[in-house]
């Protein structure tokens, strides 16, 4: 990650914290612990999956209100996912287990959310879009796993654009805009003469970002893998140089200077 990118992300993060810190203080006053905030976000994501499953069982395929509300709930759950760390810092309640608990629940939250999305898309015969959603799920998990595995080997691995906050915001906005588009314009379909199927429709507002995620989450995971490979090679080369120096020093010390 370049210095400019780090500075920009730090500036954006500080701006977000400036907005949410009053709410963080309220949560602390109400007695919320970081783990309770994490669990609240997870429960909200279960609610997201429930909304998508209810929408899947609705015989009216053109009822996109569920998708819009699911998008809103995804955004709220993402907010709680972000606040747990801030609650830990401002309330002096940080712990090693809390960090682990947060990481594990984040993975469960994302899996449950994509479960609901895939169920909905398959139930309403959006087969290609369901494949995009499943590939996006694979990419999302590999982005997180690559970082965790690299850091387990002592390598920092935080690069790439489609990290969890970006993924959450994109899916949430896609769902909300899909619901809003349906509310304003109804269930529309755009056809091109000579093409037997619609090239764009109301549902595309939600599924097109899933296609973007399917591509770029896996690109991010691969770029992290290559970055970790480079860092590991540099680390191994440095260790080899140190071993060479250490093995040479005793020989140098024991060398007898000829008379």
TrEMBL record:
Domain of life assignment: Bacteria
Stored InterPro entries: CDP-OH_P_trans (IPR000462), CDP-OH_PTrfase_TM_dom (IPR043130), CDP_ALCOHOL_P_TRANSF_CS (IPR048254)
Keywords, alphabetical: Membrane, Transferase, Transmembrane, Transmembrane helix
Pfam family, one: CDP-OH_P_transf
Keyword Transmembrane helix: yes
Residue ranges crossing the lipid bilayer per the database entry: 36-56, 62-83, 128-148, 168-186, 206-225
Family: Belongs to the CDP-alcohol phosphatidyltransferase class-I family.
Protein name: CDP-alcohol phosphatidyltransferase family protein
Naturally occurring in which organism (per UniProt): Nibribacter koreensis
Organism lineage string: Bacteria, Pseudomonadati, Bacteroidota, Cytophagia, Cytophagales
